[in-house]
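Example with several molecule types.
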Amino acid sequence: MQEQKPTSLNFMVVDDSGITTKKMAKVLEELGHKVIGVARTGREAIERYVEVNPDMVTMDITMPDMNGIEATRNICREYKDAMIIMVTSHGQEQMVVDAIKAGALGYVIKPFKPETLKASIDRILDKFWN
Amino acid sequence: MSISIKRLMDIVSSRTINFLSDEMDIHVDRQDIKLISNNRLELNYITSVITIGSTPHIFIIFSYEKELINKIFEVYTKELDIEVEERAEYMEETAGDLVNIIVGNSIAEFSSGITISLSPPIVISSAESIAKSRAVKFFVNDLTTFYGNLRIFCVGPNELFEI
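Resulting structure tokens for the full complex:
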């Protein structure tokens, strides 16, 4: 982990909707970050995580093959310093609890404003670098 | 999972009207909600479907008239570079994203401590109708906008239609 709090992160975006991954990439780039990997299912997210080694991940929940909570659990079990933000339409309290238990560090509900995502990213960075 | 389909329909309808207004600047001029007894549902130009829960299954179906989905697509993708050959695929994904976001937001009001799952959305184009069995009922809400009509169907087993 870097000594100074980073201002630009390498992201992997996980969502089964191609249009949502495009929109997410645009928002992240506007916030000064870079998208270095994309995955469309939970299983693909686990495989791609090893290949691209991102600083942070945005993870949808409802996806074919394996859902985002299961994928988060798998990634966080293997990589203790993984930083994952759930970005999902699910506003259910229990879903948030399940995601946090799986290892997610943030939870953003779609549709979201860029500043909401930025605040979630900043909270995670502050937790590790302050 | 024990829910009233009428209540679910009201919440999904209300969220849809707010989403169209807040995110798309598309205003619903009129809505017409009814329980229908036909065996066949007439669909619009493009249709997206999502399943709620596991037992019993409830289906929420959004069916968009062409001009309306074109307008939604235009607003939803306004900051993106979409190639001409990507347009049809991304328009279908837009229809899927909308039902996923609106229903995902809506079920928070039902969950009360339990997790209700959603299926990934599926999108149907070039279909004219869906037939139903006697074991299920439909609610339909026709939302009328300047750009055309959005039909919302809520489909589930008969016993969930007690109002």
